[in-house]
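Recall the central idea of this unit: under ordinary conditions, the amino acid sequence of a chain determines the structure it adopts. In this exercise we apply that idea directly, starting from the sequence alone.
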Amino acid sequence: MIKKSLIALAVIAMAMPAFAGKLKIHDPWPTQLVPQEVCKIDVVLDVGFYIEIVDEKPIKVTQDTGSSDPAKTYTGCKKTDVKSNFAAQLIASIAGRSAAGGNWSVTVDPSTVPAGTTNVEICVKGTGVDISKLTGGSKNVKVAEVTIKVLPAA
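Accordingly, the structure predicted from this sequence is:
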C-alpha cells in the first residue's frame, strides 16, 4: 500500500507545473468573479546624465565704449537657464570665426550649477577686432563662436 501511495505521489508531482515566484491559491474563489492580485513587478531604468542650455540663440556684441580701444573692443552678455539632473561644471571656450579676427574671451557665471534649473550669465569680450575686414551694413555677422562643455561637479 505504501508503495502504491509513493508511486501515485510521484506521478502527481511530475504532472504538476513548475511555479515561479509566489504560488497563490484561491480556493474557493470569492462568490463574485473579482480579479485577485498575484504579484507586483518593479520597473527599473538606468538614469543617464541630462543637461540643457535653454537659450542657444546668439550673443549680440556691441562696441565697448568704456575700454581703452573702443574701436576694436566688443562685449556682450546673455542670461539663460541651465537644466540638469546632476551638479555640473560648465567649461566655456570661444574662438574667432570671421575675417575681423580678434582675441576673444568668455565667462560663465556661475560656472558650477546644482541639479535642477539655474540661471547663468554668459559674457564674451573681443579685443583687437578689426571690423574694417567685414562688409559694411551687414546684419548678424558671426564673429566668434562659444563652445560650452560640461563635467560632473565634484
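The radius of gyration is 34 Å.
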